[in-house]
Amino acid sequence: MEVQKIFEDTFHLKKYVISLNVTLGTLQMTIFEEGSATMWKGSFTQSYIEDLTSKTGNFKQYKVFCKMLLSGLEKTSQSVIIDVLTQEEFENIRSEPKPGRNLKLYMIMTYIVEFDKVHYPLSLSLANKKKFSSSQDLKVLQDELSELRLVKQEKDIMEKRLETMISDRDKEIYYLSKEKEELQTELDKIKNQMDSIIEQLESQAKINTNKSVKINEELKLQNEKLENEVEKMKKEAKSLRDEQKKDKSRILQLESELKGFFDKSKSNRPKSITASASQLQRSVAYEPNELNNRLSRLRSLLEISK
Fold first, then answer.
1. Where are the domains of the chain?
2. What share of the chain is helix, strand, coil (3-state, %, to 5)?
3. What is the DSSP string of 108-172?
4. Is residue 173 pLDDT above 80, yes or no?
5. Backbone angles phi, psi at 37, to 5 degrees
6. Contact, 109 vs 84, CB < 8 A?
7. What is the per-residue pLDDT across 96-119, written as a single tens digit (0 to 9) for each?
8. In the beta sheet, which residues pair with residue 122?
9. What whole-number distance in Å separates Cα of residue 33 and Cα of residue 89?
10. Which fold has domain 3-131?
11. CB atoms near residue 33 (< 10 Å)
12. Sequence-ordered list of residues with C-beta below 8 angstroms from that of 50, at least 6 positions apart, any chain
């Protein structure tokens, strides 16, 4: 932590210029009182600061103490208050007045905590043992003060530039964030539309699936019905074939009987009987032809059913 800053402030009707230089292990402070042209200086090590805070009962690390001191001088924290007292003013507060002694200057940092206040006093020694009586000495001191103010102005300008850069960056971040929000809104809108389309497609697919199941069931029923009809026709064809076999067997038997009968009585029967027998034989011969036709039709039906 390295900080170099200059502050101007008024304490007890006196205008002071405070120069602060913070390094990793040392806190250096110079305070100039314009009215009396008096300067005080102090240098405080890390161990001194931490020992001081420990004695107050509210220990602070060196870095934390320096940050608190800066926030008090910059007036950015309501919990930290800075006061500057001459030795005489300090002793008056402590009820130990010793008039005419201002060899020291005290910067008091007050840390306000709940129901309590903690005071951290820093003592600075007088840098110029006597007041500047000559105009030349006073001019040297005024030049130093002008230089300090110039440094402060440069620092202020740099800080303003930095603030501007930060502001521009914040604006860019704001616009980028806004653009991101708009894109996110558009993306959410597209996502909702896609979800709606997917839901519709799933619903349609479900309907189509139900229709397909219904069609399959109907086809299955029709197939079962056709199979039953084919089975029925197969049974009928088998029955017809069995009947045909019986008819053929019967015809053969009749033909054999007729042949034996004709052979036996051929020589002694009248012609009329012979003619009647021939007519009966033609009638019997016709019956198998009719059966053959019926059997052919059944075969055709069986081929179609296959």
1. 3-131, 234-305
2. 65, 20, 15
3. EEEEEETTEEEEEEEEEEESSSS---SHHHHHHHHHHHHHHHHHHHHHHHHHHHHHHHHHHHHHH
4. yes
5. 50, 45
6. no
7. 555 556 689 999 999 998 888 999
8. 107
9. 14
10. Dna Repair Protein Xrcc4; Chain: A, domain 1 (2.170.210)
11. 18
12. 59, 60, 61, 62, 65
d(CA 254, CA 258): 6
Banded model confidence at residue 169, pLDDT cuts 50, 70, 90: confident
pTM of the entire predicted model: 0.47
DSSP state of 97: -
Average pLDDT along the chain = 81
Tens digit of each residue's pLDDT (9 = 90 or more) over 55-95? 999 999 999 999 999 999 999 999 999 999 998 888 887 66
Q: For residue 98, which phi and psi values (nearest 5 degrees)?
A: -135, 85
Tell how far CA 46 is from the center of its chain: 47
Integer Cα distance of 11 and 7 in angstroms: 12
The Cα–Cα gap between 105 and 65 comes to: 19
* Displacement of CA 150 from its chain's centroid (Å): 52
pLDDT in tens, 128-164: 655 444 566 566 666 767 777 787 778 778 878 888 8
H/E segment holding residue 69: helix 62-74
